[in-house]
Specification:
The protein is mainly α. The chain has a domain at 13-96 and 171-207. The chain has six helices and two strands, in the order αααββααα. Strands 1-2 form a two-stranded antiparallel sheet. The chain is globular and about 65 Å long.
Length: 228
Protein backbone atom coordinates (compact mmCIF):
# COMPACT_ATOMS: atom_id res chain seq x y z
CA UNK A 1 0.00 0.00 0.00
CA UNK A 2 1.16 3.55 -0.68
CA UNK A 3 1.21 6.33 1.87
CA UNK A 4 -2.18 7.67 0.82
CA UNK A 5 -3.83 4.30 1.39
CA UNK A 6 -4.23 3.44 -2.30
CA UNK A 7 -2.93 0.20 -3.81
CA UNK A 8 0.39 0.65 -5.59
CA UNK A 9 0.73 -0.87 -9.05
CA UNK A 10 3.50 -3.41 -9.54
CA UNK A 11 5.94 -3.00 -12.42
CA UNK A 12 4.17 -4.40 -15.53
CA UNK A 13 7.20 -4.22 -17.82
CA UNK A 14 8.35 -7.87 -17.41
CA UNK A 15 4.95 -9.03 -18.68
CA UNK A 16 5.13 -6.54 -21.54
CA UNK A 17 8.65 -7.66 -22.45
CA UNK A 18 7.64 -11.32 -22.62
CA UNK A 19 4.54 -10.54 -24.70
CA UNK A 20 6.60 -8.48 -27.13
CA UNK A 21 9.06 -11.38 -27.38
CA UNK A 22 6.23 -13.75 -28.33
CA UNK A 23 4.91 -11.54 -31.11
CA UNK A 24 8.41 -10.83 -32.43
CA UNK A 25 9.32 -14.51 -32.62
CA UNK A 26 6.05 -15.33 -34.38
CA UNK A 27 6.45 -12.49 -36.85
CA UNK A 28 10.09 -13.35 -37.41
CA UNK A 29 9.24 -16.96 -38.19
CA UNK A 30 6.71 -15.84 -40.81
CA UNK A 31 8.91 -13.17 -42.38
CA UNK A 32 12.04 -15.35 -42.39
CA UNK A 33 10.19 -18.10 -44.24
CA UNK A 34 10.01 -20.77 -41.56
CA UNK A 35 6.23 -21.18 -41.92
CA UNK A 36 3.84 -20.86 -44.89
CA UNK A 37 2.54 -17.41 -45.76
CA UNK A 38 -1.02 -18.64 -45.15
CA UNK A 39 -0.31 -18.66 -41.39
CA UNK A 40 -0.59 -14.86 -41.36
CA UNK A 41 -4.25 -14.65 -40.16
CA UNK A 42 -3.42 -16.75 -37.09
CA UNK A 43 -0.48 -14.48 -36.30
CA UNK A 44 -2.67 -11.40 -36.70
CA UNK A 45 -5.25 -12.67 -34.20
CA UNK A 46 -2.53 -13.35 -31.63
CA UNK A 47 -0.99 -9.94 -32.32
CA UNK A 48 -4.29 -8.16 -31.66
CA UNK A 49 -4.75 -9.87 -28.28
CA UNK A 50 -1.16 -9.12 -27.31
CA UNK A 51 -1.48 -5.55 -28.56
CA UNK A 52 -4.56 -4.87 -26.41
CA UNK A 53 -2.73 -6.23 -23.37
CA UNK A 54 0.29 -4.05 -24.15
CA UNK A 55 -1.95 -0.98 -24.22
CA UNK A 56 -3.16 -1.80 -20.70
CA UNK A 57 0.46 -2.29 -19.62
CA UNK A 58 1.34 1.08 -21.17
CA UNK A 59 -1.34 2.83 -19.09
CA UNK A 60 0.02 1.26 -15.90
CA UNK A 61 3.59 2.22 -16.86
CA UNK A 62 2.62 5.84 -17.47
CA UNK A 63 0.70 5.85 -14.18
CA UNK A 64 3.90 4.74 -12.45
CA UNK A 65 5.86 7.50 -14.18
CA UNK A 66 7.78 5.06 -16.42
CA UNK A 67 8.08 7.03 -19.67
CA UNK A 68 10.37 4.52 -21.44
CA UNK A 69 8.24 1.46 -20.68
CA UNK A 70 4.97 3.27 -21.34
CA UNK A 71 6.14 4.63 -24.69
CA UNK A 72 7.49 1.27 -25.86
CA UNK A 73 4.33 -0.63 -24.93
CA UNK A 74 2.02 2.07 -26.31
CA UNK A 75 3.79 2.40 -29.66
CA UNK A 76 4.30 -1.34 -30.06
CA UNK A 77 0.79 -2.23 -28.92
CA UNK A 78 -0.98 0.40 -31.04
CA UNK A 79 0.94 0.43 -34.32
CA UNK A 80 2.37 -3.07 -34.52
CA UNK A 81 0.02 -5.08 -32.31
CA UNK A 82 -3.49 -3.77 -32.96
CA UNK A 83 -3.45 -1.34 -35.89
CA UNK A 84 -1.45 -3.25 -38.49
CA UNK A 85 -2.96 -6.58 -37.43
CA UNK A 86 -6.54 -5.34 -37.81
CA UNK A 87 -5.62 -3.83 -41.17
CA UNK A 88 -4.17 -7.17 -42.21
CA UNK A 89 -7.30 -9.03 -41.18
CA UNK A 90 -9.42 -6.60 -43.20
CA UNK A 91 -7.40 -7.59 -46.26
CA UNK A 92 -8.48 -11.21 -45.71
CA UNK A 93 -12.04 -10.79 -44.43
CA UNK A 94 -13.52 -7.92 -46.47
CA UNK A 95 -12.92 -9.50 -49.90
CA UNK A 96 -14.94 -12.53 -48.77
CA UNK A 97 -18.05 -10.35 -48.46
CA UNK A 98 -17.39 -8.79 -51.88
CA UNK A 99 -17.71 -12.16 -53.58
CA UNK A 100 -15.34 -14.41 -55.50
CA UNK A 101 -14.73 -15.38 -59.12
CA UNK A 102 -13.18 -18.46 -60.67
CA UNK A 103 -9.89 -18.04 -62.49
CA UNK A 104 -8.82 -21.38 -63.88
CA UNK A 105 -8.55 -23.92 -61.05
CA UNK A 106 -8.46 -21.21 -58.36
CA UNK A 107 -11.18 -19.15 -56.72
CA UNK A 108 -10.10 -15.58 -55.98
CA UNK A 109 -11.89 -12.53 -54.49
CA UNK A 110 -13.57 -10.05 -56.84
CA UNK A 111 -11.62 -7.21 -55.26
CA UNK A 112 -8.36 -7.31 -53.35
CA UNK A 113 -7.17 -4.65 -50.90
CA UNK A 114 -3.53 -3.56 -51.35
CA UNK A 115 -1.51 -3.31 -48.15
CA UNK A 116 0.91 -0.58 -49.24
CA UNK A 117 -0.43 1.93 -46.71
CA UNK A 118 0.62 -0.33 -43.84
CA UNK A 119 4.20 0.47 -44.78
CA UNK A 120 3.50 4.18 -44.32
CA UNK A 121 2.06 3.45 -40.88
CA UNK A 122 4.97 1.29 -39.72
CA UNK A 123 7.69 3.61 -41.03
CA UNK A 124 7.18 6.30 -38.33
CA UNK A 125 7.27 3.49 -35.76
CA UNK A 126 10.71 2.52 -37.06
CA UNK A 127 11.86 6.12 -36.67
CA UNK A 128 10.42 6.21 -33.13
CA UNK A 129 12.38 3.07 -32.23
CA UNK A 130 15.56 4.72 -33.56
CA UNK A 131 14.92 7.70 -31.29
CA UNK A 132 14.42 5.30 -28.38
CA UNK A 133 17.80 3.74 -29.22
CA UNK A 134 19.45 7.14 -28.86
CA UNK A 135 17.75 7.66 -25.50
CA UNK A 136 18.68 4.15 -24.31
CA UNK A 137 22.44 4.69 -24.74
CA UNK A 138 22.36 6.31 -21.30
CA UNK A 139 20.53 3.32 -19.80
CA UNK A 140 21.94 0.07 -21.18
CA UNK A 141 23.92 -1.07 -24.20
CA UNK A 142 21.57 -4.05 -24.54
CA UNK A 143 18.46 -1.86 -24.66
CA UNK A 144 20.13 0.58 -27.07
CA UNK A 145 21.19 -2.29 -29.36
CA UNK A 146 17.70 -3.80 -29.22
CA UNK A 147 16.00 -0.56 -30.23
CA UNK A 148 18.52 -0.03 -33.02
CA UNK A 149 18.15 -3.52 -34.51
CA UNK A 150 14.36 -3.43 -34.18
CA UNK A 151 14.30 -0.07 -35.95
CA UNK A 152 16.12 -1.65 -38.90
CA UNK A 153 13.83 -4.70 -38.86
CA UNK A 154 10.67 -2.58 -38.75
CA UNK A 155 11.99 -0.20 -41.40
CA UNK A 156 12.79 -3.12 -43.73
CA UNK A 157 9.30 -4.54 -43.23
CA UNK A 158 7.84 -1.09 -43.99
CA UNK A 159 9.72 -0.87 -47.28
CA UNK A 160 8.60 -4.40 -48.18
CA UNK A 161 4.97 -3.43 -47.59
CA UNK A 162 5.39 -0.24 -49.62
CA UNK A 163 6.70 -2.37 -52.50
CA UNK A 164 3.48 -4.39 -52.44
CA UNK A 165 4.64 -7.39 -50.36
CA UNK A 166 6.63 -9.16 -53.10
CA UNK A 167 7.44 -12.83 -52.65
CA UNK A 168 3.97 -13.93 -51.52
CA UNK A 169 2.88 -16.19 -54.38
CA UNK A 170 1.30 -19.22 -52.71
CA UNK A 171 -0.26 -19.29 -49.20
CA UNK A 172 1.06 -22.84 -48.77
CA UNK A 173 4.64 -21.73 -49.40
CA UNK A 174 6.93 -19.49 -47.30
CA UNK A 175 7.51 -15.87 -48.25
CA UNK A 176 10.38 -15.74 -50.74
CA UNK A 177 11.90 -12.27 -50.72
CA UNK A 178 15.37 -11.32 -49.55
CA UNK A 179 14.35 -8.04 -47.93
CA UNK A 180 11.58 -9.41 -45.73
CA UNK A 181 13.48 -12.66 -45.04
CA UNK A 182 16.37 -10.60 -43.67
CA UNK A 183 13.90 -8.53 -41.66
CA UNK A 184 12.47 -11.78 -40.29
CA UNK A 185 15.85 -12.86 -38.95
CA UNK A 186 16.23 -9.47 -37.28
CA UNK A 187 12.78 -9.91 -35.73
CA UNK A 188 13.89 -13.27 -34.34
CA UNK A 189 17.06 -11.71 -32.90
CA UNK A 190 14.96 -9.00 -31.26
CA UNK A 191 12.51 -11.60 -29.95
CA UNK A 192 15.25 -13.65 -28.29
CA UNK A 193 16.83 -10.50 -26.82
CA UNK A 194 13.48 -9.22 -25.54
CA UNK A 195 12.77 -12.59 -23.94
CA UNK A 196 16.03 -12.29 -22.01
CA UNK A 197 15.18 -8.71 -21.05
CA UNK A 198 11.77 -9.81 -19.77
CA UNK A 199 13.18 -12.72 -17.76
CA UNK A 200 15.93 -10.47 -16.37
CA UNK A 201 13.45 -7.79 -15.32
CA UNK A 202 11.19 -10.39 -13.70
CA UNK A 203 13.98 -12.13 -11.75
CA UNK A 204 15.63 -8.84 -10.73
CA UNK A 205 12.29 -7.49 -9.50
CA UNK A 206 11.50 -10.62 -7.47
CA UNK A 207 15.02 -10.81 -6.04
CA UNK A 208 15.21 -7.10 -5.25
CA UNK A 209 18.68 -6.93 -6.80
CA UNK A 210 20.42 -7.32 -10.14
CA UNK A 211 20.73 -11.04 -10.94
CA UNK A 212 20.66 -10.93 -14.74
CA UNK A 213 22.29 -7.67 -15.92
CA UNK A 214 21.10 -5.65 -18.90
CA UNK A 215 24.49 -4.11 -19.53
CA UNK A 216 26.05 -0.82 -18.56
CA UNK A 217 25.24 2.49 -20.30
CA UNK A 218 27.15 3.29 -23.48
CA UNK A 219 27.25 6.95 -22.43
CA UNK A 220 27.23 7.46 -18.70
CA UNK A 221 24.99 10.33 -17.51
CA UNK A 222 26.87 13.45 -16.48
CA UNK A 223 27.17 13.85 -12.69
CA UNK A 224 24.80 16.31 -11.07
CA UNK A 225 25.93 19.74 -9.91
CA UNK A 226 26.04 18.55 -6.29
CA UNK A 227 28.32 15.58 -7.07
CA UNK A 228 31.77 15.90 -5.56
Amino acid sequence: MSNNGQAQWADPNPAGNLLVACILLGTGGLFAGFVPAGCLPLLLVNSIIIGLTLLMIAVISFKRGDIMGGTLNAVFGTIFGVGSSLAGLVQFVLPIFLGVVTKGPATVPVAQIPGHVNGMVLLPGAVAMLVMAVVAVRLSWLLASWFGVFSIALGSASIWLLLGSPGVSDPLRPIENGLINTSGWLFIMCGVSMFYIGVANLIDTLAGKVVLPLGSPIIKPAPGPDAS
